[in-house]
Design goal:
Elements (H helix, E strand, L loop, with lengths): L1 E3 L6 H10 L6 E4 L2 E4 L2 E5 L4 E5 L4 H7 L29 H10 L5 H12 L8 H6 L7 H15 L10 H9 L6 H10 L12 H8 L11 H9 L6
Antiparallel strand pairs: 1-5, 2-3, 3-4, 4-5
Helix pairs in contact: 3-6, 3-8, 7-8
Amino acid sequence: MILRVAEPYDWARVLDWLGTRAIPGLEEVGGGAYRRGGVTVTHRGDGELHVEGEADPAVVARVFDAAHDPAALPDDPVFAGARGIRVPGAWSGWELAVRAVLGQQVSVAGARRTAEKLVAGRGRFPAPAEVAGEELPGMPSARHRALRALARAVVEGLELDPPLDLAATRAALLALPGFGPWTVEYIAMRALRDPDAWPASDLWLRRATDAGADPEGWRPFRAYAAMAIWQPGTPG
């Protein structure tokens, strides 16, 4: 399968982002490719993503932000050298929401280690019904409560994959215990696919605005500005 993408497409940045968050036993990044299960995705700088294996084209397109057009980004210094930036998506909104909760106030490496415990012994990401009905050993109580509440909401019908009502989904997430504005906006960026999502309370984003940057000038692509701030420069 081939998915067309608008160039420039900063594949190195995408792999860097996904690779540092890859859950052992579920996915891996190496040799210029992303692999998950029997699916391998590569980009050869030709305006195409090459997908080997069985996968839903719509899901792969969301994970690798294939629909984004770099030409639409504002002419602003935050995008200097970052015109090919993408907002990596998720294989499912449920999985991304769980990852967002696990990433609250801990390092990326710490969140990945905790996520690995959820996957261990399954070979896949746990389903909402499993998390809703299981004890999660070694999980801090607040995070455990947030994950169980999220799982129950999804089991009861909360949708986290597009198309959906962004405002209603944000409100539903904010009503869950342990879900503050940062977590909800991060989910909106990567799972709900809102290009203007903005986790304003994030430390790095606050530093950028405190230094004089004006996020209003990045509308309606503030999510891409956030990625450019989080990933300054092409990974080596």
